[in-house]
Amino acid sequence: MTTKKSSQIIALGGGGIGLDKFNFAIDNYKIKASGEKIPKIAFLPTAVGDSAFAIEKFYRVFPPERAIASHLPLFSRDSRDLEDYLLNQNIIEVSGGNTANMLSIWKIHGIDKILKKAWENGIILTGASAGMICWYECSVTDSFGPSSSLVSGIGLNNRTMLKELNSGLGFLKGSACPHYNGEEDRRPIYEKLIKNQILPDGIALDDYVGAHYINGKLIKLITPKIGSKGYKVSSEKKIIQEIIIEPELIS
Q1: pLDDT attached to residue 73
Q2: What is the β-pairing status of strands 210-214 and 217-223?
Q3: What confidence tens digit (pLDDT) does each residue in 136-190 have?
């Protein structure tokens, strides 16, 4: 009798695929969580338009002695069966980039439904920024680019417009915000979106902080960077409540 694996998501507030010591520690954590010495890792670079630079960096980060790495292009489809390919992985890594575009393209190709099967089958789903917020019901995103006009009545100094995105995959409940300490507009705009009931209560993560969920429940936060944190953000009678979640320090 085969034991059903737990569903796992490791959502990262920022950082992502890279050769620096912080990302290296986070990637090692993902590998350990998979239970495989050399796991099969699939990279979905949809949010960056299948960028050759992002793909090349992914293979440098995961050489053969570390993982069995591969990637799935959707802008230039090959002949692989998408479901067969993705369900034969241990980890699925989603790039940062344009979340709204990525979700739309996934829906056209049926990737959204396949990822749900992968999650239910115990394949680890992970990623930073766009690769974080896609797993939640909704989020705050910069997918809609710079704008000189206010969206939902919220904007700061006409810098890059952050807007609500309500078309997340919904594997995780509530809203999410990445780059909480990395981009100056993230915290105030996320708080306003929640205060004005445009987004429901949720979780915000600093760069290099990972939220590890098992079977849809937050088990712990992890980070290799001292001082980085996570936050539960909610509104009660239009007063923002922000509760710090201290992460476990990894190396």
Answers
A1: 97
A2: antiparallel
A3: 999 999 998 754 334 444 444 445 579 999 999 999 999 999 999 999 899 999 9
Look up 71 and say whether it is catalytic. Answer: no
Tallying the residues shown for the chain, one arrives at 251
Among 34, 129, 139, 143, the one annotated catalytic: 129
239: β partners: 236
Distance CA 234, CA 87 (A): 36
**Cβ atoms of 202 and 235 closer than 8 Å:** no
Is position 129 annotated as part of the catalytic site? yes
Given the residues 7, 95, 139, 179, select the one marked as catalytic.
179
Of 198, 190, 194, 184, the residue nearest 152 (C-alpha): 198
**Residue 25 near residue 12, CB atoms below 8 Å:** no
Query: Strand runs (DSSP E) across the chain, as ranges?
Result: 8-12, 40-44, 68-71, 91-94, 124-128, 136-141, 163-165, 172-177, 202-205, 210-214, 217-223, 230-236, 239-245, 248-249
What whole-number distance in Å separates Cα of residue 22 and Cα of residue 208? Answer: 7
Least confident of 4-8, 113-117, 155-159: 155-159
The CATH code of the domain at 8-249 is 3.40.50.880
Cα(193)–Cα(244) distance, integer angstroms? 19
Q: Using a cut of 0.85, tell me whether the model's pTM lies above it.
A: yes
If you write DSSP's letter for every residue of 44-83 in order, what string do you get?
Answer: E-GGGTS-HHHHHHHHHHS-TTT-EEEE--SSS--SS-HH
* CB-neighbour burial class of residue 76 (10 A; exposed 0-12, middle 13-18, buried 19+): exposed
Measured at the CA of 43, the angle between CA 226 and CA 210, to 5 degrees, comes to 20
Pairing outcome for strands 163-165 and 136-141: antiparallel
